[in-house]
Amino acid sequence: MLIMNNVSRIYRNDTIKTHALRDFSLDVNAGEFVAVTGPSGSGKSTFLNVAGLLDTFDQGEYTLDGVSVHGLKDDELSRLRNEKIGFIFQSYNLIPDYSVFDNVDMPLRYRDFNAAQRKRRVEQSLEKVGLASRANYLPSQLSGGQQQRVAIARALAGEPKILLADEPTGNLDSLMARQVMELLHKLNQEGTTIIMVTHDPDQAREVNRNIQIIDGQISDFKIYAPLQSSESNLADAVKDKEGVDA
Amino acid sequence: MLSYNLKLALQNFKRAPSLYFLVLLTLSIGVGLLCANLALVSSMTGDPIPEKSDQLFHVSMNTWPNDQPPAEPFHILRYREAMKIAESDIPINSAVFYASGVYARDAQSDSLKRFDSSVRATTNGFFALTKAPFAYGNGFAKNSGMEVVIGDQLNQKIFSGENSVGKTLELDGELFTITGVLKPWSLRPLFYHATEGRAFNLTDDIYVPIETAIDLGWSIHARSSSTVSYKGVEFTRDRDVFYLQAWVELEDSTKQQAFQNYLDNYSQTLKDAGEHPLDINNQLRDVNAWLLEQNIVDQKVLAFTLASLLFLCVCVFNASSLLLSRFHSAKFEVGLRRAIGASNKNILNQGLTESVLLGFAAGVVSLLLSWLFLKLSVTFLPDLANIAVLDPKLLLLGMLLALVTSVSSALYSLYRANRYTISAELK
Amino acid sequence: MNIKALFKSLLLRKFTTGLLILQLAITLGLLVNSTILAFDTQGKISQATGLDNDNILIISTHPTSGNYRDLDYYRSIATQDMAKLRQLPGVKSVSVTAQLPIRSQGMHSNTYDLDNPEQENTDKYLQNVKYILAEENLADAMGFTILEGRFLNNNDQLDFGSEEKHNIVITAALKRALYGDESAIGQETNNGFIVGVINDIILDPTLPADKQYGLFINTVMEYIFAARYYVLNVEPQQMANVRSQVSETILAVQAERDIFSVFTMQEHLNRFYRDDKGLADLFLLLCGLMLLITAISSYAYSQFHVTKQQKFIGIRRALGARKKDILLYVLTENWLVYSLGCVLGGIIALGFNVMLSQYISLSKPDLVLFLLATGVIFISGTVATWIPATRTSNIPPVIATKTV
Lengths: 246, 427, 404
Prior knowledge:
The complex is a heterotrimer of chains A (246), B (427) and C (404).
Chain A: E1 2-12, E2 17-28, E3 33-37, H1 44-51, E4 59-64, E5 67-68, H2 74-84, E6 85-88, H3 100-105, H4 115-129, H5 144-156, E7 162-166, H6 174-189, E8 193-197, H7 201-206, E9 209-214, E10 217-221, H8 231-244
Parallel strand pairs in A: 3-8, 3-9, 6-7, 7-8
Antiparallel strand pairs in A: 1-2, 1-4, 4-5, 9-10
Helix pairs in contact in A: 4-5, 5-6
Chain B: H1 2-15, H2 17-45, E1 56-60, H3 79-86, E2 93-106, E3 115-122, H4 126-130, E4 134-137, E5 147-150, H5 152-159, E6 168-171, E7 174-182, E8 206-209, H6 210-215, E9 225-226, E10 241-242, E11 245-249, H7 253-272, E12 283-286, H8 287-294, H9 299-339, H10 344-380, H11 392-419
Parallel strand pairs in B: 3-8, 5-7
Antiparallel strand pairs in B: 1-11, 1-12, 2-3, 2-6, 2-11, 4-7, 5-8, 6-7, 9-10
Helix pairs in contact in B: 1-2, 1-10, 2-9, 2-10, 2-11, 9-11, 10-11
Chain C: H1 3-12, H2 14-45, E1 56-63, H3 71-87, E2 91-97, E3 108-109, H4 119-122, E4 129-133, H5 138-142, E5 146-149, E6 167-171, H6 172-179, E7 188-189, E8 192-198, E9 214-217, E10 229-234, H7 239-253, E11 257-264, H8 265-272, H9 274-307, H10 310-318, H11 323-357, H12 367-393
Parallel strand pairs in C: 4-9, 6-8
Antiparallel strand pairs in C: 1-10, 1-11, 2-10, 3-4, 5-8, 6-9, 7-8
């Protein structure tokens, strides 16, 4: 589904060259739920931006759903982004003076759907996140968790192949965070590929694949291991690893 | 997509109404002012009779009888030369005239109220030459006789606009019969009398046969120069009094050449008789060449047009910086749309739609302001009263200018929206 | 004040700063030139004309009836008019003439001394000397000062139709042109014998001051059909009074007249420069609009601090800056931009002046004017940015620590 090969993203200003991503390689298959962790400044955001076609890369190859991204023009990249990717941000990023319906409708406007088709898709998306009855509400009338679910509905409206979530529960309290995660798991079970950046080790543990990014490079752990580990914990960690392999 | 973009544009306007209002205001004031000035300039430089402006020629000759002429050649003629021109059959039409003025009164009316009227004492070819539009009747048949043609304005004043052909006017104690009434007739500029600062006058109120006017001694209300004294106009036929202007209609270059020869031959006969001390210098200038030479464009208007051009620049700069500050506020939404799949082109189209919509609105307001400003300009520069009109092509120009300025103001913002990285605002 | 740092912060917003500087420059350019136009026009209107501007009343009139073709009839009416006008309280003298001073068109004649006919070739202005039909009272009515000899009298009005040479009175400028320092009295010109010289008056404002050539000849009654203007000399306090009565007085003598207008010599002078004044006023109007628009831009420019720079302002406050310091900071930044704009504006003012000079006549700009205009811009700009500057200074320091 998503294949990155030796991707490098280098930021240059007048004096300093920063390797935000360095020889980054990743293979994500359809249906996987990947949690991306790592310390601050490690390149997680850059990875998500490159993966989401929001940013270009300097070296390497990136193939999304069979389409090689290299050399594509802005029009084509935008279309890819629109049709294949759904974004979920930490701060929901809903338009405050649009209704729930109009917010979810937004990505559909950039495709060739007529009004009836758009309406159907929006309603379906809202169904999936359980907010069909709130279609005419404004974001300010919803709780944080509900707003994030609207954002998820917006990400789903175009039936994307892959969802990219950047700390989706970062601004929510634990109850709402729970609800959002349950929703994401449900979607994943229904077949949606999800890549999620998170700081929460519990969330990371719940998904079937973990990646750690440190200094722009990838470390692939099947089990999330805390950075400071004592020997006993390490033994437990190894045991757990064997257990989850199945 | 267009309807969606329009919807988004309107939403944007609602979100920052005072800002967009300011942009609308500055653009429309700037465009309106410039448009009004351009309307004035266009009136002053326009071709008043495009269908035959290259076939109508003003005649200037150099027959001043001593070696200190007021000008070489001189734009006004003596009776002798003027009649020589009028009797030639080379031009298809010719007009010889002078400007005068008289007080007019309906001879049948009980009221003694008299109307100050501008007079054109002319040969009868004038009407065909200038394509004077008749509402009723027609021109007078001969160059003498007690008949007149009157203009629409005078007809409105004296006869309330009815068909007054056959009625009698009392002019300066004499009775004249009306043979024709003209339709409302505006020539901008008044090409047939563009000298002595009259280029923006209205067309005349009364057209009278020239010989009649001379016989009655109706005074000359425009330039006249002479080397001898004379007691009245009735004595000018055989004296060196220069006051008549002549226009001829020559259909093609052969006719033009033929007429030029005709004039030059005549001047030569004068020279041979020792009556033409200056060089032979007969000039035929067509309508536009003549108007150009008279330099009728009011330089003050040109100066102000220049200033209003600078003013428009300031308005565009202002609109530009206002729109840029709006762009900063809208960055978040642009970033979001890009993230969910809007291409740069989509965003550009959205921005352009907004600018064009704003431009249309500004265009409408600016045309209103143009009209207002033209009215206002007449209080500052009263000489412009007759040319302060907005004709249709200026309306189009105004709308176009408004669109262009609106889009230019938004250009930098659109450019910035295109260039910046999406992820920056979306954390 | 750290000027370098201020410059740097301007460079952060190159585009908007550049736009504002351009706007300021153009505004200054227009302001300077508009002021020049206004002063120039004011100067023209208040120039000395050699005439008693405020105390001369002129009535411009024309008969409407054909009866006036009978010149004796016309003359009798005119004589009665003047008698009746003379009787109005406050009127010191009345005359009639065919053309007025302070006008470029009119009746002209070439004039030269008979012993020196080549004069009009060396001095072209002698080919167009104002030929003013007058009668004996004109000098009193206009308030002329007789420098040499006398003005015209009754005997100078010859029998109508006479071919004899008339006596004439000339202006001082014409006398200097014809005779230099010698006396002109008794000299014979092509137009008549000179019996008097009057002070210089402005006959045609478009000609140089020393070329105001004019001659007066007592033939206005002979050519009465040309006599369009009654000239009254009125006592200083009585102008309004007299003015309100002249139309009735004339129409009471004979009603078939059109009274075009009644005006003082000063109003006549103003009227000559009506278009100049109109243009100057238009320019000032434009200036006002431009200042307004530039003020709007200035306001928006300073708003940037309130909306975009909150964090940095907060940091400054957290580090110890007082509200006053922030206020001064914003204002100084603006003043820096104004200074740049005004320097550029000086160049634009000069350029604009040159361009305008191709269409109209106006004086060159000087330093004082430039400084004045700069002052206006600084003041209006500061007023415009006062509110955003105050808002900026009110940004609380706590913002420095906000992360959301």
